[in-house]
Amino acid sequence: MSNEVIQEIEELRTIFEKEAEGIQSPQQLRDVRDKYLSRKKGIITGLMAKLRHIPDEYKAEFGKEVNLLKVAVDQKLKTVEDSLQSQGIRKPDFSLPEFSIPVGRPHLISFVRTQIENIFVQMGYKIVYGYEVESEYNNFDALNIPEHHPARDEQDTFFIKGHPEKVLRTHTSPVQIRYMKKNAPPVKIISPGKVFRKDEPDATHTPVFHQIEGLLIARDISFSHLKGTLEVFLRSFFGGNLNVRFRPGYFPFTEPSAEVDVSCFLCFGNDPGCKICKGTGWLEILGSGMVHPRVLENCGIDSEEFSGFAFGMGIERIAMLKYGISDIRMFYENDLRFINQFG
Ligand code: PHE
Questions:
Q1: How many C-alpha atoms does 133 have within 13 Å on its Cβ side?
Q2: Whose CA is nearest to atom 2 of ligand 1?
Q3: Nearest residue to 262 (alpha-carbon basis) of 237, 234, 299, 290
Q4: What's the mean pLDDT when you consider all of the chain?
Q5: Is the CB of 289 inside a 6 Å radius of any atom of ligand 1?
Q6: What is the pTM of this model?
Q7: Architecture field, domain 108-132+170-339
Q8: Which of the given ranges, 45-49, 96-100, 123-127, 158-162, has the highest pLDDT on average?
Q9: Alpha helix locations (H) across 168-314?
C-alpha cells in the first residue's frame, strides 16, 4: 500500500513539473494552480481528503508525502509567477506605437521680452505691469498728448463702447504715469506688455503688439545717461561691436527726443543691397528722450529738482531684426514650424 501510494504521488509530481515548465502566461498559471490546489477540485486537495480512508498505520507517511508535494507545488508556482512577472518587465513590446511627450517652449515674443528684461534688471531696473484698458487721461493727457493730437483720433485708437473715458492703451507709457503718481523719485522701471492700435495688418503692423518702455527719474539726470544706458542695452542685445546713433525726433512726452538706430549687424553698412538695412547701414530701433517737465508735474514730481529719461521699443520689431523675420503676422499664426525654431 505504502509504496503504491508513494509512487502515485511521485508520478503526480512529475506530471506537475512538466506542466509547470510549460506555463507561459498568467492565465496558464491560474489554470495549473487551480488544477492542483483549488479548494474544491484541486488534485492535491483531493489527496488530502483521501487521508480519512487510509489505514491508520500509513496515515502519517501518506500525510507527510502529500504535504511535501503541496509545498513543492506551491514553491514551483511561485517561481513561475516571479519569472513571468520579470519577463513582462524586461521585454518591451516594440510593436506598440510610440508615445512622445511634446516639449513646450516660450514663444519668441516672450523669449525676446525676457532677454530685454534681463539686461535692464541687471542694470537695476524694476519690472512694472499695468492695465491694458486705461483711462484716456493716463494714456494721453498726463503724457502731454493734447486733445487734438492725431493719436487720439478714432481712426488710431480703440475706444471702449459705453465707457467714453476708456481706451485700450496705445503704449505702455501709462504704466509709468501710474507708477510716478504713487512713487517718489528715484524711479527706475521698465514696463513690458501688450498695446493696441487700429492698424490694418500687414508685414509690419498688427492691431495688437508688444512694447517695453523704460523710465528713470532722479536728480541730475542728463542726456548722456540716456545715451550710455541705451548703448549698454543695445550692445548687450545685438552684439558688442555695434555703433549706436541718436537722431532728433519728436514725442509729446519727451524734450528733447531722439530716435535711436544701431549699425546694421548683418552687413555693417557694406552691402548696398542688404535685406535688413536696405543699404543704409542703420536700423531704427527705438524712441527716447528726456521726460517733458509737464509730464513730471502731472505726476506730482518737482521738475526743478528731478529730471529723467524715457525710451520705448516694439518687441516684435526688435525680434524681427535680430532673428531675420520678414512678416510680423508669423508671431500670431501659431504655426509650430515657426514657433519651434526659437526659445
Ligand atoms: N511711448 C512711445 C510710443 O509708444 C515710445 C516712447 C517712449 C518714445 C518713451 C519715447 C520715450 O510710441
A1: 7
A2: 312
A3: 234
A4: 92
A5: yes
A6: 0.72
A7: 2-Layer Sandwich (3.30)
A8: 123-127
A9: 173-182, 223-238, 293-298
Grid coordinates given for 148: 487734438
Higher-scoring residue by pLDDT: 166, 97:
166
Report the alpha-carbon distance of residue 51 to residue 328 in Å, rounded.
91
As given in the structure block, the three cell numbers for residue 9 are: 504521488
Mean pLDDT of 135-150: 93
| Domain ranges across the chain | 3-90, 108-132+170-339
From 171, 187, 257, mutation site for ligand 1 pocket: most ligand atoms within 8 A of C-beta: 171
Residue 293 has pLDDT above 70, yes or no: yes
State the average pLDDT over residues 249-262: 97
CB of 254 closer than 6 angstroms to any ligand 1 atom: yes
Instruction: Tell me which residue of 41, 23, 37, 128 sits closest to 82, measured CA to CA.
Output: 23
The finding on whether 310 has its CB within 6 A of some atom of ligand 1 is yes
